[in-house]
Fold this protein.
Amino acid sequence: MKLRHLEIPDKLWNDSRIKFEGKMIFGYILAKGFDRLVTDLNVGEIQQTIPITNVGLLKNLQKLERYKYLTFKEYSKGMYAVTLN
């Protein structure tokens, strides 16, 4: 049986195009949606761990999507459906 553990890929940590804040957001999404394809994300939920606004979260998600780390869809203001690639 293969041991599965949670860690952010080295490819993302070494990517200088993504800010540290974006890497922390990805880590939060990965921790919340571990072993699931789709995760619901609320901006208020992530604000408890990372001080960020809705606009900041949206820009970081767009950057992560542009570099093919995840895909997301905003289905309501501040509510996102995220799929990890």
The helical segments are 10-13, 20-32, 43-46, 54-66. The chain has a mean pLDDT of 86.
